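Any chance you could type out a protein's amino acid sequence plus the matching backbone structure tokens because I've never seen that pairing?

——
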Amino acid sequence: MNPSEFINIGVLIRPHGLQGNIELKLDYPAKDISALASFFVEDQPIPLPYFIENLKQLSQAGHYSVQLEDISDLEAARKLKGKKIYCLKSELQQLFELKNQGEFSDDQLMGLELIDRQNKKLGKISDIFENAMEQRLLQVLIGDKEVLIPFVENRVLEFNEKKAFLKYDIPDGLLEIYLD
């Protein structure tokens, strides 16, 4: 397996109790949470598999208490705190309810170098938000300023996942609002 076969689905937040349970937050609503038998935890060079022994919903939406095989005490659970969790891209559709994000998923866009129509490198896409009108906003650090750029697919001039860049037609005057 290589890293491109995985997609981030959430994070292990913190230990939950003293028996090795861990609170996890999923980024996608699960179709049937009982179908999730395992996931991969961030490690180098590729994520490592962990098998689920017990999983139960917590009061906050998308949060679960999970008991993993071979994690049986608080200390072992602490070592996984803050680690991202992954599943295989091939399993994503069957496990989770995905909103149609069009041609580009958030995971494809995260970390790409954003380039404007004049070929100027602006910065890396560090986060993606959705506003109240369900429009995606790309967060890019330009110099020392965080800039939010509305993402509209027909403004994509070039997308190259291998070279990790997105050439984008940024609306005139938008950057000046943030940078002046």
